[in-house]
Amino acid sequence: MTSWWHGGIGYEIYPRSFADSNDDGIGDINGIKGRLPYLSWLGINAIWIAPFYQSPGLDHGYDVSDYRAINPIHGTLADFDELVADAHGRNIRVIVDIVPNHSSSQHRWFQEALKGRDQPHRDYYIWRDPGPDGGPPNNWVSHFGGPAWTLDEASNQYYCHLFLPEQPDLNWSNPALRAEFDDILRFWCDRGADGFRIDVAHGLIKDPQFRNNPQRVPIQDPDNPTEVFNAFEHLYDMDQDGTVDVYRRWNQVVEPYEAVLIGESNPRSLDRVARYVTNGSLHTVFYLEPGWIHWKPEDLLEKIETVHRSTDTGISWVIDNHDNPRSATRFGGGDVGRSRSLAVMTFMMALGGFPFLWEGQELGLTDAELDASNLTDPIATRNEHGVGRDTTRTVMPWDSSHANGFSKSAEPWLPSAQRTPAETVAVQRDDKSSWLCKHRDLITTRRSHPDLWKATPQWLETPPGAVRALRRGKMLALANWKPDMFSIELPPGKWSIIYHSGSAEHEDVSGRIDLVAESTYLLVAST
Predict the structure, then answer these.
(1) What residues contact 334, with CB distance under 8 A and at least 6 apart?
(2) What does the pLDDT look like over 90-99, one tens digit per residue?
(3) What phi, psi does 58 have (nearest 5°)?
(4) What CATH number has the domain spanning 108-160?
(5) Catalytic hit among 199, 359, 390, 423
(6) How many whole angstroms separate alpha carbon 415 and alpha carbon 5?
(7) pTM value?
(8) CATH architecture of 10-103+175-445
(9) How far does CA 370 lie from the centroid of its chain?
(10) Which CATH code for domain 455-525?
């Protein structure tokens, strides 16, 4: 049986920044509901909503204090129910973000755990005695800066946190915790959720011996948390083999609901990606590396092909998300970066799997301009040299009114420079040559030609470098990401160009085709 997400196209929504319905400067569930007609027009058939749970907001919702409650700044459970009903009426599925690697330190489980070593919820978290020198038990470091251990002086034990100290890691070796999350998944499925995006999906299980991670390279800037974290080979704190067993259990929980499990997975090597989507575990995983890589087309194509060959249907392809600078910025900025971004996304639409856009990507948005005094991301605010994620999380530009139409009169929670009219939905929707309309045409093309995601893929021989050719049934995807035009021999027969990331021209071709630099073509075999 073909599952509903096969051939689907998803769209990530950051609820704080998408649409503010009650004019308090913070986006909310009713704001999302009010913009469903736009998403339907765009051609989206699934939305992934970043966390909206009860939370102190130290990591903007990824520090959950109650997995069954909605933060009042975003709305109510009744609002969620109405959103789901409206979305389903438009054939749009709703995927919620689940955060299983850690909770907020304000969660009642952790508050109970702090009361003593003999408390029932103590084992919901990871505790270790101090090392021989009285310090942390090993050399693990946090993504957000500093060691991954904080001392609880009352019990003289350290607890593990791969992110903020206020985000203690959960102990997935505890059967009681696993049962808790079974119930959490059922709670949201019973309310109509169609699946889950799983935060830090590769991080749940930890090495039972808590061994030190090997250090790969010297650390030049100890105040830069990203550099420090990447200086280590994460053999023991991430991507442990037992993690997939958790998802085999989750698969059984959500199977009666026909819900999808999408992992945010960043395994330590490309050959470990497919293990998350085999043998009844996750249905698909985000391949994250294109979301932070800069314009290195040969490297990018090589990695895309490697991952695709390992699993055709099990990847959710992305080049943008809420954690990294926007691809239009990373790929060169301005129209050059926008054009390259569209070329990459066009090729990804031929890779099968379940591709996603990040809100505003369809507009060709580059990173926003922010004053340093307005930064809110803990990576930036808690580290002297930390590079935060705020520039990609600013509000969606709907039009040229106050706050680009995000709020009626309130200042947005994350102030930034007003976007130009040319960057807004209102202007781009009426311009057939706009980035918005180009993305909409791309989505329409993929949905109209199921061979792009159903037919067996066949990588055709191409010369080394930034050129690739992928055939799927009657469809052919040609990527020339070189800086110059490149000529390539087509398979026998007549072909029609039905989409070109660099031009609106459609034509019939045969024999050889001259591919414009830094662009991607989609062709269909002529009958």
Answers:
(1) 328, 366
(2) 999 999 999 9
(3) -70, -25
(4) 3.90.400.10
(5) 199
(6) 36
(7) 0.96
(8) Alpha-Beta Barrel (3.20)
(9) 23
(10) 2.60.40.1180
Region 40-56: mean pLDDT is 98
301 in Cβ contact with 479 (< 8 Å): yes
Query: Mean pLDDT over residues 468-493, rounded?
Result: 97
Q: Which residue has the tokens 């096969």?
A: 6
Note whether 386 and 423 are within 8 A (CB).
no
Catalytic-labelled residue, pool 12, 264, 377, 423: 264
Question: 527 pLDDT exceeds 80?
Answer: no
pLDDT at 1: 54
H/E stretch holding 222: none
Domain locations in the chain as residue ranges: 10-103+175-445, 108-160, 455-525
Query: How many CB atoms lie under 10 A from the CB of residue 83?
Result: 23
Q: Hey, what amino acid is at 124?
A: Y
Write the DSSP string, 312-365: SSSEEE-S--TTS--HHHHTTSHHHHHHHHHHHHHHHTTS-S--EEETTGGGTP
Q: Which amino acid is at 486?
A: F
Please report, for residues 49, 111, 156, 168, the alpha-carbon distance to residue 150 in angstroms, rounded to integers and kept in the order given. 31, 15, 10, 9
- Angle, vertex CA 278, rays to CA 273 and CA 282, nearest 5: 80
DSSP 404-426: GGSSSSSPPSS--PPPPGGGSHH
Is position 82 annotated as part of the catalytic site?
no
- Is 489 among the catalytic positions? no
Nearest to 298 by CA among 522, 518, 521: 518
> Would you say 159 and 149 are in contact if contact means Cβ atoms under 8 Å apart?
yes
